[in-house]
Amino acid sequence: MKNYTITVNGNVYDVTVEEALAGSAPAAARAAAPKAAPVKPAVPAKPAAPAGAGSIPVKAGAAGKVFKIEASVGQSVKKGDTVVIIEAMKMEIPVVAPEDGTVASIDAAVGDAIESGAVLATLN
C-alpha cells in the first residue's frame, strides 16, 4: 500500500492506494473510500442576524468559496446589486441584494468556504 496526499480545488485528501499483483483480485474490489483530511470548515447558515447587524439577510444561493466582496459596510445598494461573489464549480456566482438598503454587515471573508443559505451580509 502507498499513501498519497492529493489536493483538489484547494481541498486536501489523504488517499491510500493498494497495488494489484498479478493473479490477485481487482484493486477496486478491495479499495476503501478515501479519507478526507481535515480542511477549513464551511461557514454554516446562520439562523439569525448577529447583534448590531441589519434586518435583511443576504444569503448564498449555492455552496462554494467567497471569491470577492463587492460592497462595503455603509454602502447603499439597490435591489439586484452584487454584494458578494462566490466561486462554485469553477464559476463566479454573484450574490445580490434582495432589496434596496444600506450594507450593515459583511459576515464572510474572501476564501471562506460557505454552505448554501449561509448569511454573507446584512442590510438595513
Summarize the structure.
It contains one helix and eleven strands, in the order ββαβββββββββ.
* Poorly predicted residue ranges: none
Helix content: under 10%
CATH superfamily of the largest domain: RNA polymerase II/Efflux pump adaptor protein, barrel-sandwich hybrid domain
How many domains, as an integer?
2
Strand portion, in percent?
A: 35-45%
CATH topology of the largest domain: OB fold (Dihydrolipoamide Acetyltransferase, E2P)
Radius of gyration: 21 Å
* Spatial strand sequence of the major β-sheet: 4-11-9-6
pLDDT average, as an integer?
Answer: 80
Taken from the alpha-carbon principal axes, the silhouette is elongated
CATH class of the largest domain: Mainly Beta
User: How do the helices and strands follow one another from N- to C-terminus?
Assistant: EEHEEEEEEEEE
Largest sheet: 4 strands, antiparallel
